[in-house]
Amino acid sequence: MKTRVGIVGFRGYSGAELVRLLEHHSSAEPWLMEHRADSADQPRPRGHAGPPRIPCTQEAARQEKIGLVFLATPADVSMELAPAMLAAGALVVDLSGAFRLRTVENYAKWYKEQHTQPKLLAEAVYGLPEFYRDAVRQAPLVANPGCYPTAANLAIRPMVESGVIDRAAGIVCDAKSGVSGAGRKPTLKTSFCEVTENFSAYNILGHRHVPEVLLTSGLEEAQFSFTAHLLPLDRGILETIYFRVKPGSDGESILRIYEDRYKGEPFVRLYDPGHAPDLRSVQRTNLCGIGVKVDAATGRAVVVSVIDNLGKGAAGQAIQNMNLMLGYPETEGLL
Amino acid sequence: MKTRVGIVGFRGYSGAELVRLLEHHSSAEPWLMEHRADSADQPRPRGHAGPPRIPCTQEAARQEKIGLVFLATPADVSMELAPAMLAAGALVVDLSGAFRLRTVENYAKWYKEQHTQPKLLAEAVYGLPEFYRDAVRQAPLVANPGCYPTAANLAIRPMVESGVIDRAAGIVCDAKSGVSGAGRKPTLKTSFCEVTENFSAYNILGHRHVPEVLLTSGLEEAQFSFTAHLLPLDRGILETIYFRVKPGSDGESILRIYEDRYKGEPFVRLYDPGHAPDLRSVQRTNLCGIGVKVDAATGRAVVVSVIDNLGKGAAGQAIQNMNLMLGYPETEGLL
Amino acid sequence: MKTRVGIVGFRGYSGAELVRLLEHHSSAEPWLMEHRADSADQPRPRGHAGPPRIPCTQEAARQEKIGLVFLATPADVSMELAPAMLAAGALVVDLSGAFRLRTVENYAKWYKEQHTQPKLLAEAVYGLPEFYRDAVRQAPLVANPGCYPTAANLAIRPMVESGVIDRAAGIVCDAKSGVSGAGRKPTLKTSFCEVTENFSAYNILGHRHVPEVLLTSGLEEAQFSFTAHLLPLDRGILETIYFRVKPGSDGESILRIYEDRYKGEPFVRLYDPGHAPDLRSVQRTNLCGIGVKVDAATGRAVVVSVIDNLGKGAAGQAIQNMNLMLGYPETEGLL
Amino acid sequence: MKTRVGIVGFRGYSGAELVRLLEHHSSAEPWLMEHRADSADQPRPRGHAGPPRIPCTQEAARQEKIGLVFLATPADVSMELAPAMLAAGALVVDLSGAFRLRTVENYAKWYKEQHTQPKLLAEAVYGLPEFYRDAVRQAPLVANPGCYPTAANLAIRPMVESGVIDRAAGIVCDAKSGVSGAGRKPTLKTSFCEVTENFSAYNILGHRHVPEVLLTSGLEEAQFSFTAHLLPLDRGILETIYFRVKPGSDGESILRIYEDRYKGEPFVRLYDPGHAPDLRSVQRTNLCGIGVKVDAATGRAVVVSVIDNLGKGAAGQAIQNMNLMLGYPETEGLL
After folding, report:
1. Cβ separation of B192 and D191 shorter than 8 Å?
2. Helices in A199-262 by DSSP H: which ranges?
3. pLDDT at site B162
4. Which of A20, A25, A44 to mutate to test the interface with D (most CBs of D within 10 A)?
5. B242 at interface of A, judged by CB pairs closer than 8 A
6. What gap in Å lies between CA A44 and CA B133, rounded to an integer?
7. Tens-digit pLDDT profile for residues B245-292
8. Can you tell me the distance from the alpha carbon of C28 to that of C47, in angstroms, rounded to the nearest whole number?
């Protein structure tokens, strides 16, 4: 029998992607948990009802034996629902920023508000399996990483760990995201006529995803310059990362660091030096693609990292975490 | 009587934009000069013939009293045509890279081919009016700047000139361009299905527009990291420029440097600190928009520079140069 | 001295286009009339203030000697403001559907609500200059036509007038519009991620623009099938119109009917038989392009009609009406 | 052991989609058959080789025991390769127009060239499983239908069969397609800058897909008006079909005709009266979605039919045909 997996926020883009992925999963099945009916459902063809639908309450979760709940909700809603779902005996994967930053001080600094669940915050595991796989397997509550930090950390942490990087010179991460990363709620900024044929920078040097990169990579804030941009497209993140490497490094040697680090990883794809992956190569997948270009003479290095913000950047990675938490093969439903 | 202005390469995107702009110019009128009919004309409505059309020869240019010729042609064609048009008594604005790099050595290094007109190369004036206005006024041959270097130089040179920048830490310029920058010739890379919903980096650390930035800004190659990206949109360039500023600088002080430098410049627009212009604010104009964000505590600075690659990045700037060369008001036909 | 022209609803797409067009008009100047500040202004570059701004009241309009007011507002707001602006001595061009349908019964049938200004409704002139030019010149209140009906009526009425059409067989008008036609207010339907790479039909056989076509063309409802579709693009309407022609008609004879009807019209462009204009040929203009294909053997005819929904479909046509009402050359500010 | 299935033209959009779908098929595996290496391969990540690759010859097909070959090639290439592949013992599904029109006369009329394989043309089965399922099961050579005719026939034939339609009044099919329908070969018409923010009609009343609709639906050419349009998007076809129904018909009764006809069909989805499916609902699937709106008072009816032109309109339907020809479950690899 399949494990029943609840999705709160199933009308949003991440939530709908979770439903879509779970409908093809061999060991889990999606159950829609209605929290606030604040948006219209998609029309469905005649005779094709969707997954079962229950209220998002502790009682309903317990009674229907929901084994795991995805919270595809804003941070404040996640802080409210996570304790209830855990109390109902369900594991929880939270896709908001509520449980990613480890301390209430750090949360208050970047999210400009008080954290209401300090104990859960301290216990939550950061769900980037390539670095925290064993902890995820044991965790009742997993904080699914942000989309920008996922692409950044997979590219940056092996560089920092290996010591190849010249930290003093600083690292620049120029990030570009599709519009679905901003969620499904209609706003002027995400209106078609404002976005099409347009491109803009936002949250320059102050994006709240920055602390996730600092925590995982070990960089200090002064060493890391990050700017987000809005691409006129639906899905995908591309980050262009600039740094200086220690003398003697070239494209092949940088690439070998990645290959050593990601040997056996099912969702990281590396490209030959000088070949950078485009968004197309990862859209609608749980993959992260990484390409490298180094000018050995001057020590300048550029790494391009791509993911699908709804895949490895949200719902895909959440399913990967679920697979680890429930003991299924890590790639189940994701290839 | 209006000055007759020839356009070679009028079917390309820059050439067509020149025609469009000249059709509204009060002192000049477009004449199409047919060099190679390698592409279909746009269908025209009944009863609406286009501008006059003559062959692109020295004789025709002289006979029709063409006062100035725009070469919206590849570099090799420009090297062939520029001497002929000058010999016919016409001034020349060349939109290719043929005459931008000052020395045959520099040209050979970046364009991987021999320059065939070394004398003209040495005499040509680099047509960035905000820095070389007086020289442009006297020049028979103006090299219209590349699109990427225009956005970069207008943002970077005041920083370098003022000494506010920490050159040792290096400058990163992450550049994104619309597809029209690649020209009208059909290629797989610029096919709709390859571009839509996609985004990619190209020419990482090796773009041939780099030397134009080095020449104008005074930076050395090892200090300047440049990567170009292809946006899924028609027109516009946005460059996000990262550097470190000397202690004591903040957003307002950086902005004052720009304001001092560009006082009275009709085509440079500055924004309040923290507000970065988007592509929409410059599309179909000859404007360059510049926004600044500085983290004074750490000295990290980000400048966003936007232009229309067919406007200030090509045809608009070419008209601006023409106005200077022919003694018209600099903004004529451009507001 | 320029006539002061007020724009109510200047933050919407039609209103902003009116401001943009008026900033280049030689005899009129835009004044922003603030009715409800329900949306953020665009950021402006330092030192570039916009047009003057006054409250949208009868007193302010009179005091500032506003000569004409554009109402780029919803129908209910237009019904409220039109009498006040007329009482202030201003002419009025209303861009909503409030005054287009001539009778309160017709308005109630299609707009599902009571009309509150029956007298003004009866007096308003329908501002399609190609058919009602003389009336527009005398009118204090002009109802600017809807975008879909403008493209439809310019294509259909000459066919009906000439008698070439087989009305019994019915006329099909398959209409496609860019997203700006839906206005600037954020909605899920006009969110980028819902629109990009998508296409859909809406208001099948029941669009409230239908009665404008019936009134102007003389067709009956049962003879006219109209469906609107949402294109994943910003600006432009293309309508593909199918009907049967009487024996003996071919592409050239149909085209001659249009040429006779539109001789001297500055904003109608006709194409050779078999060549249909695309949206590109009319975007950012006040033009309507018309192309024809007829299969003489079977009497099947197809007419393609294109406009810019913010140009000839809204702000452009409104300026054209203003020019007529204020006695300026009809094409002033529109070429 | 999986059946080896050859794909000729694997670099084109239909061919690449076949490879993608077959990589997830439980009973068949893709083999790339190299005919003309006229275009660059996509870069692949390190360590991820693609499917096996063999020359497209009779000998190679026989030797490698290729069980079925997809020809995703132009019509002239298909006419050349089909006999060779059949002689090698392989079944053939041809995605071109070469074998769809049954007679050499019909082929010559619409394709303006001689058919070189009249015997195969006469024997080929038209692969629209919803109507010709049993014949497909026995066929050595299946002509995979065109994209436009697939959407049209699934919507129109039940109307004609049931006699509900008023044929004398004619049927209008206004069809809109994404750009991938035009193939991967770069052309000016399919260049990004020509397509984005643009929309146009083409092949008005003369598209070569028309005869496929006539053959399958039983309509006569004079009764059927068809115009194709190019949408600024990658994948998907939406057809808006207008006709008159006999008195007494309404939305529900029309829908019941479809429900009776398509009961048990796995790939046809019907929507409640008044609800028309959009492209999003079928993209990347093998589904056809059909919605209906009828104005019972006037007998006007509109049917909206949507497919993915690379799914049910090409590769998806080709896999569906393959499943039937090889005796696999019809939906294998397609859900």
Report:
1. yes
2. 210-217, 251-262
3. 97
4. A44
5. yes
6. 64
7. 999 999 999 999 999 999 999 999 999 988 999 999 999 999 999 999
8. 23
- Most A CBs within 10 Å, among D269, D290, D304, D308, to test the A interface: D269
Q: For residues D56, D60, D66 and D69, what is the CA-based torsion angle, rounded to 10 degrees?
A: 20
B288 catalytic residue (yes or no): no
CA dihedral B232, B233, B235, B236 (to 10 degrees): -60
Strand partners, B54: B33
pLDDT for residue B187 is more than 90: yes
Tokens of A293: 């270009």
Provide the pLDDT for residue C35. 93
Of residues B305, B266, B275, B272, the one with CA closest to residue B289: B305
Q: Distance (Å, rounded) from C-alpha D267 to C-alpha D254?
A: 19
Closest chain A residue to the Cα of B197, Cα to Cα:
A233
Contact across the interface for B205 and A295, Cβ inside 8 Å: yes
A174, β-bridge pairs: A227, A240
Identify the CA nearest to B287 among candidates B257, B328, B318, B317: B317
One pLDDT digit (tens) per residue for chain D, 335 residues: 899 999 999 999 999 999 999 999 999 999 999 998 666 777 789 988 899 999 999 999 999 999 999 999 999 999 999 999 999 999 999 999 999 999 999 999 999 999 999 999 999 999 999 999 999 999 999 999 999 999 999 999 999 999 999 998 999 999 999 999 999 999 999 999 999 999 999 999 999 999 999 999 999 999 999 999 999 999 999 999 999 999 999 999 999 999 999 999 999 999 998 899 999 999 999 999 999 999 999 999 999 999 999 999 999 999 999 999 999 999 999 98
Q: What's the whole-number mean pLDDT along residues A12-17?
A: 97
Residues of A in contact with C200 (CB under 8 A): none
- The β-bridge relationship of strands B237-244 and B171-177 is antiparallel
pTM: 0.97
Terminal-residue alpha carbon distance, chain A: 22
Q: Is some CB atom of chain B closer than 8 A to the CB atom of A235?
A: yes
Place of tokens 């009028």: B10
pLDDT at position D38, please?
66
For residue range B214-245, list pLDDT tens digits in order.
999 999 999 999 999 999 999 999 999 999 99
Cβ atoms of A234 and A178 within 8 Å: the answer is yes
- The answer, for A197 touching chain C at a CB cutoff of 8 Å, is yes
CA-CA distance, C67 to C59, in Å (whole number)? 13
Query: What domains are defined for chain A?
Result: 3-145+313-326 (3.40.50.720), 147-309 (3.30.360.10)
CA A39 – CA D31 distance, rounded (Å): 46
Find chains touching chain C: ≥3 CB pairs under 8 Å. Answer: A, B, D
Q: Which residues of B touch A236 (CB under 8 A)?
A: 197-199
Chain C, nearest residue to D224 by Cα = C300
Q: Which residues of B touch A226 (CB under 8 A)?
A: none
SS (H, E, C) C145-186: CCHHHHHHHHHHHHHHHHCCECHHHCEEEEEEECHHHHCCCC
Largest CA-CA distance found in chain A, in angstroms, rounded: 65
List the structure tokens of A279. Answer: 């968004």
Which of A169, A174, A197 lies at the smallest CB-CB distance from B234? A197
**Which residue among the candidates D147, D173, D193, D288 is catalytic per the annotation?**
D147
Contact criterion met (CB < 8 Å) for D293 and C229: no
DSSP 3-state assignment of D154? helix
Which residues, listed in sequence order, are joined to residue D224 by a DSSP beta bridge?
D171
Judged on CB neighbours under 10 Å (0-12, 13-18, 19+), D255 is: buried
Q: Which two tokens stand for residue D148?
A: 């436009």
Catalytic residue among C56, C147, C173, C288: C147
Tell me: the pLDDT tens digits for C174-194?
A: 999 999 999 999 999 999 999
